[in-house]
Amino acid sequence: MVTKQLTGAAGSAGPEGSAPDAAAVTRADSLAREIFSDIANKWALLIIEALGGGTLRFTELRAEVEGISHKMLTQNLRLLERNGLLVRTVHPTVPPRVEYTLTEPGHALRATVDAMCAWTQRYLGEIESARDRFDDA
């Protein structure tokens, strides 16, 4: 449960050292679930990974994220922008030039994604063996 992490060993305290109130914990739980839902898809994670190299225009980003449709890229960019993970900059040119850049929280999330990729690479053999055993049973 997310609240265990939010109020865990360090005891996230409210103002003046008091324990967080139930409403704040419930709100944090709800927000965490929403954010996890928004970013827990392959497209969002691939977009974050692609933007880790720097600012990209929409067409450059679409080329970087192989297989993504225009619609899915647009939807995921909006979700990531809404959650403060990237910034969309529209330059007043004809046609408009739109660029996307990770924010500080976006870069922090990218570090987490990189750690997940490293974990996958480290345990790839064990994961594949477990899947084979499961599928053979």
Describe this structure in words.
This protein has 137 residues and is mainly alpha-helical. It is built from six helices and three strands. It has helices spanning 2-6, 22-39, 42-51, 58-64, 70-82, 104-136, and strands spanning 56-57, 86-91, 97-102. A three-stranded antiparallel β-sheet has the order 1-3-2.
Short description:
Mean pLDDT is 87; it is low at 1-14. With 137 residues, this protein is mainly alpha-helical. The protein has helices at 2-6, 22-39, 42-51, 58-64, 70-82, 104-136; strands spanning 56-57, 86-91, 97-102.
Global shape:
globular
Looking across the biggest beta sheet, what order are the strands in?
1-3-2
Question: Biggest sheet, open or closed, and with what strands and sense?
Answer: 3 strands, antiparallel
Residue share in β-strands: 5-15%
The DSSP helix count reads 6
- Give Rg in angstroms: 19 Å
Beta strands, count? 3
**H and E string:** HHHEHHEEH
Mean pLDDT: 87
Outline the low-pLDDT stretches: 1-14
How far apart lie the N and C ends? 32 Å
Fraction of residues in H or I helices: 55-70%
Q: Which class of secondary structure composition applies to the elements?
A: mainly alpha
